[in-house]
Design brief:
Elements lengths: L6 H29 L4 H26 L4 H19 L14 H31 L3 H15 L7
Helix pairs in contact: 1-2, 2-4, 2-5, 4-5
Organism: Trifolium medium
Subcellular location: Membrane
Keywords: Membrane, Transmembrane, Transmembrane helix
Length: 158
């Protein structure tokens, strides 16, 4: 049996990381519930759906861009994700909650839901095709580029 002196420290770091993720998710959920009081269920569903789809997105990035390298994946998680967050944080703009039903808001949510379903189906098909056909790297890069376009589809909403 291998005994490591830093097991307790690792456990503590993982506990903090897990709890911080829960705090961040709660803050995002509460903020969006406040911004869209009429469509709370839709907002919660979209946020939780993208949370589930994120695992497939990370798998696609790990496989196609990082070539199944766990050290590159850890570097991507440690550096790439924060850089991406700091880069796109300027795209977030405050919105005033509407007091009543807004027809354009409904269609915006329908567009986001359709793009989410399209992204999910796309990820399912590309993952299955890669498992069956073993797609080469050039095609993999093109598929990841298309995945990123599908991820950015909600930005098309004015």
């Amino acid at each position: 049996m291998v005994v490591n002196e830093f097991q307790h420290l690792l456990w503590f770091a993982l506990a903090i990381a897990t709890n911080s993720c829960a705090w961040l998710t709660t803050a995002i959920l509460v903020t969006n519930m406040r911004n869209f009081p009429v469509s709370r269920g839709t907002v919660a569903g979209i946020l939780k759906g993208y949370g589930g789809i994120s695992a497939a997105v990370f798998t696609e990035i790990y496989r196609a861009l990082l070539h199944n390298s766990s050290s590159n994946f850890l570097l991507f998680l440690a550096v790439g994700i924060p850089v991406l967050c700091f880069t796109v944080m300027f795209l977030i703009r405050p919105c005033t909650p509407v007091s009543g039903e807004n027809s354009s808001e409904k269609w915006h949510f329908v567009f986001i839901q359709c793009s989410s379903v399209a992204l999910g189906v796309y990820l399912l098909v590309t993952t299955t095709l890669d498992y069956i056909l073993h797609i080469n790297s050039t095609v993999s890069y093109a598929l990841v580029a298309l995945m990123i376009l599908l991820l950015m589809a909600p930005l098309a909403i004015p």
